[in-house]
Amino acid sequence: MGQTDETTGFQKNGTDKEINLKLLLGIIRARVWILLLFILLGTILGGVYRLIPEEPTYTASSRIVIKASAEELSTLVVMIREPAVLEKVVNKLKLNRSAAELKQQISVENVENSLISIVKVTDINPKVAEQIANATVDTYLQEIAVVLDFTNVTVLTKADAQTTVSSPTSRGLSSIILGFLVGAIAALGVIFFLDSLDDSLRTERDVEQWLDLPVLGSVRRIKGKESVIQSKSLLKQTARGETIGP
């Protein structure tokens, strides 16, 4: 015995999931052209986006020597990307970005087994990358002198205009795959939305579920040509005075 659904009064059994799956597939099949259209458009847009050349970025580097113990060094290096330093860099250079955004452009690397740290800045403008790298180091020296009372830092090399061109990241097939998936998801959303607006009863199950009435019989759909032939046959039988029906 299956369990009874309190909201519909129908019994649930092991075939409910199979029936629901068939209903969903039927809904999609009825408007499969929408699915194919959206997938095609999404894939095309993804391919077009892939062909758009990415803007190259440039990396400027400045090297500093921090004469400190290993314990102190970790704290001193972290200070380079702190808001207290970066906010002053933003104000000094009048950059049109926040300190948090600037932080994403800056990285700090420690040369292994040495006291040398490399401050790297990436930007689409090589001159701006150079200015940010040098301004960050200068501001950092001022801040650690005030906040940590530490002055044992030396600038080994400043960043210059001879920045390194960073190769743009290839989008590969990811944009095409993403376009395909977005198109498919959007299409399914549209299909199910349109189905929710359709209140017509198309199957016997629809009648039983929504009207709570038993189905006594069904009428087979008659195609146009077949209907015309049957109508002519009935007219001939009537003209001859024959009895129509069983």
Question: Can you describe this structure?
Answer:
This protein folds into 2 domains: 15-54 and 170-217, no CATH class; 57-166, Bacterial polysaccharide co-polymerase-like (2-Layer Sandwich). It is 53% helix and 14% strand. It has 9 helices and 7 strands; from the N terminus they run ββααβαααββαββααα. Helix 2 (32-51) packs antiparallel against helix 7 (174-197) and helix 4 packs across helix 6 (126-147). The chain is elongated.
Write the layout of secondary structure elements.
Layout lengths: L2 E2 L6 E2 L3 H15 L1 H20 L5 E10 L3 H9 L4 H11 L5 H5 L2 E5 L5 E8 L2 H22 L5 E5 L6 E3 L7 H24 L6 H8 L12 H16 L7
Helix pairs in contact: 2-7, 4-6
- Number of domain modules: 2
- Radius of gyration over C-alpha positions, nearest whole angstrom: 36 Å
Which structural class matches the secondary elements? alpha+beta
**CATH homology superfamily of the largest domain:** FepE-like
Query: Termini separation (Å)?
Result: 41 Å
Give me the strand/helix succession: EEHHEHHHEEHEEHHH
Q: Which ranges are low-confidence, i.e. pLDDT below 50, for 5 or more consecutive residues?
A: 1-13
Indicate the CATH class of the largest domain. Answer: Alpha Beta
The residue-averaged pLDDT reads 79
Percent strand: 5-15%
Number of distinct helices: 9
Helix content: 40-55%
Task: Assign the CATH topology of the largest domain.
Answer: Bacterial polysaccharide co-polymerase-like
What does this entry show, briefly?
The chain has 9 helices and 7 strands, in the order ββααβαααββαββααα. The protein is an alpha+beta fold.
